[in-house]
Amino acid sequence: MKHSKYRKLGKFGAEVAPVGIGAMSFTNFYGPCNDSQANDILTAALDMDLKHIDTSNVYGAGKSEERIGEFLSKQGNLANDLFNIATKAAIYTDPETGKRGFNNRGEYLEKELDKSLKRLGVDYVDLFYVHRRDHNIEIEEVTNSLSNLVKKGKTKSIGFSEIAPSSLRRASKIHHIAAIQSEYSLSTRAPEMGLLQACNELGTALVAFSPVGRTLLTDRPLTYDFAQSLDFTKVNPRFNKPNYDHNISITDKFRNYAQDLGVASATLSIAWLLSKGDHIIPIPGTRSVEHLKELIAAIQFDMTDEIKNEIENILPLGWAYGDRYSAAQWIGPERY
Fold first, then answer.
1. Of these residues, 59, 129, 257, 325, which one is catalytic?
2. Is residue 242 assigned to a domain?
3. pLDDT at 1
4. Statement: the pTM of the whole predicted model exceeds 0.85
5. Do the domain assignments include residue 155?
6. Residue 6 bears catalytic tag
7. In the prediction, which pLDDT does 158 show?
8. Which residues are CB-contacts of 179 (< 8 A; sequence separation ≥ 6)?
9. Is position 170 within any domain?
10. What's residue 31's pLDDT?
C-alpha cells in the first residue's frame, strides 16, 4: 500500500507514512500482548507501508524492543532497512527506592542506546529521543551528547519527548532536532500553545503519542473496571470517577458523529490530527490488526472544514474532565 502523501522525520529525515506505530502496546501497558500479536502488527505494518515504529528502552523493561528485534531477526539482510525505528532513553527506576528518575548524562544515554541496538538487532536507529528531561543538566549539553551519537553512526537523528517550545528552540541552536514527541489529540491540545508552531518553524516533526486519547476517542473506550486494573489509568484523573463518566458521555456524541459519517471514531480522531499540520505524525498503539486498519484509514479520509467545525462543536477545546496526568505522572514532562 503506497500512501499519497508522506511526511518527514525532521528536515533531513526519512519520508514516512503520515501515521506510525507506537510500540508501547507491544507490552502489557493497556492490556496483555504476546509475541504473536506483536508479530501480526509488524507484518501488517509492512503490508500497509507503515515504516515508522516508535519504542523505548523502558517499554516492558525492554520487551517492546525485543519483540521488534525478534521480528527483524527473521528478515535476514533486510533487518536494518524495513522500518524507520525510533527509540528513547533517560527514564530509570532506582533499584533501592523504587522511585522513578531521569538521567541525561551522555555516557548513560549512549550505554542505554547500545543496549537498545542489541535488543533490536540493528546497527543504528533512525531517531533517538531523550525520553524525559533531567533539569540538572542544561539542554544544550544534552543536545551536544546526542549529536555525538549521530557522529558515531548510532542514530541518524535526535529528538526530545515532552519538552516545552522554549527548550526546543534552545536545543535547535546546537543541532537540528528532528522530532519532538508529545501527547496530542482531541482530548489533549496543549501543543497548540506554541509547540505545534515552533516545530513547524524549525522543520521539526511533531510526533503525537496517545492520539486517540488513551481509547476515549475510539469506539471501544476502556471500561471503568478495566481502567482500574491498569497501573497507568487507575491513577489517571480522566479515568477516575466522576471524570470518567463525564468523559464517556461527551465522547459518545463524537462516536455517534463518526458513525453518521460511516467511519470508526479512531479514524476520525487521527484524521482530525493529520489536518492540523503536515509536520504531525501520530503514533497510535494497538494490539489488533483490525484496529490498525481503522487507524490508518485516516490517511485517506477527506477532512473538510465542515467536518472539522462539527468536531470542534462536539469536542470543544478543553472539553475533557480531569488533567491528562496525575501529580506523580506529571514529574518529568515540561509544562508551558
1. 59
2. no
3. 54
4. yes
5. yes
6. no
7. 98
8. 9, 10, 13, 86, 127, 129, 157, 159, 204, 205, 206, 207, 281
9. yes
10. 66
